[in-house]
Amino acid sequence: MRIRHIIRSFGTAPARENEIMKIFDLLRTLRFIGWENPSRAILYSIMRDRQDRHLIRALKSDAPRWEPPGKILSAAPTDHGAEFTFEQAKLEILFLAEDVVRVSWRPGEPPVPYAIQERYWPGAQPALSETAQNWILAAGKVSAHITPSGSVTWLLDEQVIRHEDDPLRQRKTWRHRSPLPETAAVYGLGGRTRAVNLRGGAYRLWNRDPGGSYGRDDDPLYLNVPMMLVLHDETCHVVFYENPYDGVISIRDEIDLQFHGGMLRYYLCFGDLEQVLQRYSDLTGRALLPPRWALGFHQSRWGYRTEDDVRDVLQGFREHDLPLSAIHLDIDYMDGYRVFTTDPHRFPNLKSLSEQAQAQDVKLVSIIDPGVKIDRGYRLFRDGLQAEAFCMLQNERVARAPVWPGWVHFPDFTNPSTRTWWSSQYPRLLKHGISGIWHDMNEPAAFSAWGDATLPLSTRHALEGKGGQHTQAHNLYGLLMNRSGLEALRLHRPELRPFILSRSGWAGNQRYAWNWTGDVESTWDGLQVTLNLLLGMSLSGIVFTGSDIGGFSGDPTPELMVRWMQLAAFTPFFRTHSSAISAPREPWRFDDPYRSAMRAMLQLRYRMLPYLYTLAWQTSEAGLPLIRPLFWEDPSNEAYREIEDQFFLGSNLLIAPVLQEGASSREVTLPEGSWYSFWDDTRSPGPAVITVETPLDVIPVFVRGGCLLPLIGETLELHIYPGASKVTRNLLFSDDGDGYGPHRIDTFLLDQKRTSLEIQWQTEGEFPFPFEQTELHLHGAAPRSMTIDGKPLDPASVVFKTSGFERLSINY
User: Fold this and answer.
1) CA 684, 686, 688: angle at the middle one, nearest 5?
2) How far apart are CA 272 and CA 156, in angstroms?
3) Rounded distance, CA 688 to CA 785, Å?
4) Is 609 in a helix, a strand, or coil?
5) pLDDT mean across residues, the chain
6) pLDDT in tens, 521-557
7) CB 548 within 8 A of CB 575
8) Rounded to an integer, what distance in angstroms lies between the CA atom of residue 276 and that of residue 293?
9) pLDDT band at 502 (very low <50, low <70, confident <90, very high)
10) Which of 282, 350, 694, 795 lies in the 20 to 30 Å Cα band around 403?
């Protein structure tokens, strides 16, 4: 804070002040780790700009005017679609199904389909017809109306869903514009800080390490997804642009998008909210069911510099009786930051450490960066050169850049043989008992004194034999590193489910890895920005995501730490992490009442595991996000779209985190239905806006009336919340928690009438029920009589133990 005060005394503008602080933080960090030669970053910036001088010169030259497609010359039907030839372009429309359409404008090379999940698409049999004004291609309820100049209007059930102006082309850049209705909202694009609703902003489609830390005004960040969910009135659709080139997009009165290379290819998904997101997941792939331990609490810090440091953390969690599932090892464990090595002095017996952790039911997760240190004494470096695995420059030299180890080479993950070679290295860590992998710096990032902190744009990549430059491969780099890592874990440890965490990626990343939102600043605004990012990621298909609790850079106040922990306890990935220059922040290092408040959140997280694990399974099956914005309840409700500080966890929990310093209360918007306070069973009808008290140890959490919420205590607890006037279906998924053995699904059907409630318990699957007894907890009701399978129960009690039942009847 003293440094920032000095900077402000010079009258520095806020944006420039943030840039100076980032540089200062980076220099402090480099000094902390002993990286005493920042001049490498300056030298690299000069080298990079020299390599890219021809590209830079071309970008700075006068651009020709935008060219439209010209007049239509012909139209012809094809299998499942049609082709249209214009004077300057060609348009292909292909129906993968009646509600999923692929649109391709040429010229421009087609993308390598890295983002697309291989699957069978049934196609459709659209009819092509011509009118006096346009051509119409219709299949089922969807139709495309193509004008002679190239604009396209999309209709669903004869209602206009989307209009697209004539596409424009300038050199190799495509421009695509789609006007937005006044009340339309737009979501997605991966990790964005500004807001959940992207309307009113401009964004870059480029994966970027912001350096040091980031805040609300930083764009782009580590993981972009060129996918948007557009909501308007009763309609919604998803558009996904399958183009990995650098791009820019403005979302104001229209969506105005430009890609600086490649063909203009995009996919449209039509239907209701859940349908279009499920169809996007069909297209780009489902997230894998994780091992159950991954849903627990992860402790991490850049600064666990020795095995003894890690043992101290294990001992601290044990002595303070705090639950823990994983400890993450940052770059400290490596020998000179060389990937796939361990330091023989500071981590001499990593296998013994992992065994000690495993005895405490804690997994070790180790970081891997893509940069391979240039060192003739380093076997991986020599093997990579021999295998021709590294990215090359235009002058036939191997590309190099400075990162943590010093000068490094970068593997070319767009080359299948490189991915295979890289995958073969993971046993070097797995043999030490490492249970999970953490991919970092894979935008890819390099240390740069100015300009884009990545490889030269002219760097050559294989792109599955097609060949291309970093302009095309950059956004794909993290995605393909994650693919290589997943293939490694599946090959070398096939009996267990893989766990990979990655900072970067692209569309389809959910098939390979979880995500965390990177180096957010440790401020209250950073906490608010985090919720924007998490919801935006979830709506972009990146469904398993989380943040650095407390922020990465800086020292959060105890109050901020508690509030961040409360938010994170209800997000898919639950981890504390911080920079090497931040103070340690293991929960026991805080005094009461802060320590007790964090302990309560840790314990609640583990109580919720049956619910969370079932959500994870449902996500792996259907592709819908675990955390969902308030408008999920009613996408046509414009007021709900404006509320970005609440979210659902699954269908049955409504979370309203405290995001303001010193807040002792907050407003909560309750959708239609009955809602129970998780903490005291207070029942509130919706729709309504209520004010809730928020002392330090309370985050407002509401349970939907009409649900059955599975929790775990000494045994399974089934919490029954009456309140719906319909039959509701509640699921519980169980298996061994890892591997690929049998599973079971317990279905609880709640049939609720005005004065009675009946629950039917149905089961399927070969996995035995993992609980000897089940406790039934009845909330918000005073029953007159109760029976289980026809046998009466004492209606004065609200907690019952049972070994199972087929039918539970309650009369009020």
Assistant:
1) 95
2) 11
3) 32
4) helix
5) 94
6) 999 999 999 999 999 999 999 999 999 999 999 999 9
7) yes
8) 31
9) very high
10) 350
